[in-house]
Amino acid sequence: MTTFVELLLGGLSMGSVYALIALGFVVIFKATEVVNFAHASLLLAGGYVTAVLHDDIGFWPALGVGIAGAAVVGSAVEYTVMRRYRGADHSVLAIVTIGVDILLTTELTRRIGTDVLALGDPWGDKLLTVGDITIAQTRVAAFVAAALLITVFLLAFRYTTWGVSMRAAAENPQTAALMGVRLGRVSLSAWAVAGSLAAVAALFLTVFPTPGLERATSLAALKAFPAAILGGLDSTTGALAGGLIVGVTESFATGYQSDLTFLGRGFGDLAPYLVMVAVLLIRPAGLFGTKELARV
Question: In angstroms, rounded to a whole number, what is the distance separating the alpha carbons of residues 221 and 248?
Fold first, then answer.
């Protein structure tokens, strides 16, 4: 029972981090109807800036610069690349984001090389023990930070002018533009928010028990993609639910790997994608996605 609870708590913690990444996918999709495959490079950029600066200016200032840096990179991609293709087919724009991801990831991995970079977090390898249950403090911090950020985002999305503009643009961009909503500004802010959330996620993906930031860290963003898809790519609530589902699924599949040897090695990495496929077979739009009806 103790193992079950520890795996559940660890899964919820990592699931909340995946939810942050998935929320970035959803924000950009709602603003532009484009699936952003460059999200992994935004995550790597934010983590890299934090790792490089923490020795010189301290952890918290470095984290702030890393978050701002990822937001700037996201905004720059939107302004210099994506805006030039406005009006193009969405599938073409998705392919463009793949090209952007290759360029950014190649440069960042060249800078990182074979090193494993520490981000200088204050939790280290400390553990929190309650009764027979032991969990890393980094996991607790990840859950608390993700919960706060997601709550702030949802409140802003619901009650602020930015949120109203975002929802209007997602609902009907042509009408929103006629009503005075500046679609370019909405798109720019969406990329900036997505970059900021990715930078925070990069922190908790690279702290204990993970050794640090490395070239393969950006692949973690791919685990959040099933979360965004199975939750519904146009649903902020779905991103949260999808992230938690993926996190718990991965945690249990990895934790009970010894009992699932008949499924082969690495089943924990594959399990989230299997859950995504199973959900899509039943609900093609995802758990909370909007169903589109077409009359012919």
Answer: 16
The distance from CA 291 to its chain's CA centroid, rounded to whole angstroms, is 23
Tokens of 44: 């790597």
Cα separation values, 223 from 68, 160, 268, 273, Å: 24, 30, 11, 8
Q: What pTM was estimated for this model as a whole?
A: 0.91
d(CA 165, CA 45) in angstroms, rounded, equals 28
Cβ of 72: how many Cβ atoms within 10 Å?
16
Query: Which DSSP category does 283 fall into?
Result: -
pLDDT in tens, the chain (296 residues): 788 899 999 999 999 999 999 999 999 998 888 899 999 999 999 999 999 999 999 999 999 999 999 999 999 999 999 988 877 788 889 999 999 999 999 999 999 998 999 999 999 889 988 888 889 999 999 999 999 999 999 899 888 998 888 888 877 888 888 888 888 899 999 999 999 999 999 999 999 988 899 988 888 777 788 899 989 888 888 999 999 999 999 998 888 877 766 666 667 778 888 888 998 898 888 888 776 544 44
Enter the tokens of residue 166.
């975002």
Q: Specify whether the CB–CB gap between 98 and 33 falls below 8 A.
A: no
User: Degrees (nearest 5) of the Cα angle 156, 161, 164?
Assistant: 80
Say whether 130 sits in a helix, a strand or coil: strand
Distance, CA of 225 to CA of 237 (rounded, Å): 15
